[in-house]
């Protein structure tokens, strides 16, 4: 056979095989591309598009909330009740992951600061929120290892004198949001915005152990059930702690705590502007309700959590754990009975330190007192721990 013909034949054969290989590779690439295209299509259809839609509608909702906030900024809810948040607005607001944000903030503020960074960082915070370093037990910012430690700074002895003639004093520094008499089982959050006593405290079975709340009990009946002396009335007071305030809270009266109810709740902001917008805000948020007795009967003190304030610490109740995940605390609330037989009761004297917040939040007092009890504070007033919250008979007689 002619060598040229043989070489041509071999060449043709190799060319054919090479063409088949190229065709196979091209087909495989096309198949792979088609598969990836189908996979990407499914990814876009089931993951990306819904996520984009959620982002779009969530963004629209936040814009609507911002617009409502702008409209409400200088309006009073009593004058413009239509500006109080609707159910859908509260739903949108609660979608924001405040618990995760608060835990992240807690982690960040507990990070150790190098000595060279403490003065600029803590100094900036102190200037921004008008913290009075002259009152601090330790006024040297370099001695605070982290921002959280500075939040919880203690005060010098004597800078918060306890009013001796008053039976009820301010439990903390802060701003008075509202106060007054409980009316038909309702309390004013701010003027023009009320919330339910029963929703805030939960079922009133702390006296005789667990029992079913009476079916069909009205708000007024619930209010009356709390009274030890039926000739008394219930009163309430709400104090907001700003970020620059002293963050420890103290006992406002001489009393004994015998029950605690922890509501995991949400961690919405309790800033006064939000309190004017979201009705029942304090009943939505995480809180630890402490119930007991004082000289006139029923007394309760409730530290309320807020955004970036998931950590509420009560010194005599180390079992309290706040700002946990919903999986860790799935129930609406958790009760703890503090029985004298178990030495769990907490006797507190007026002005005695009770606990602390990280950053700032709110204290709600609800208590029984004689009908002539009269507050001597004003909404929006800045108060200091230990200051008297009410007129005393001696002061009234002296003024006469």
From TrEMBL:
Catalysed reactions, semicolon-separated: a 1,2-diacyl-sn-glycero-3-phospho-L-serine + H(+) = a 1,2-diacyl-sn-glycero-3-phosphoethanolamine + CO2
Pathway stated in the Swiss-Prot or TrEMBL entry: Phospholipid metabolism; phosphatidylethanolamine biosynthesis; phosphatidylethanolamine from CDP-diacylglycerol: step 2/2; Lipid metabolism
Source taxon at top rank: Eukaryota
Mitochondrial intermembrane side: 70-400
Positions of transmembrane segments: 46-67
MF terms in GO: phosphatidylserine decarboxylase activity
Ranges of compositional bias, category Low complexity: 10-21
Mitochondrial matrix side: 1-50
EC code: 4.1.1.65
Role this protein plays: Catalyzes the formation of phosphatidylethanolamine (PtdEtn) from phosphatidylserine (PtdSer). Plays a central role in phospholipid metabolism and in the interorganelle trafficking of phosphatidylserine. May be involved in lipid droplet biogenesis at the endoplasmic reticulum membrane.
Protein name: Phosphatidylserine decarboxylase proenzyme, mitochondrial
Lineage of the organism: Eukaryota, Metazoa, Ecdysozoa, Arthropoda, Crustacea
Gene: EOG090X05NI
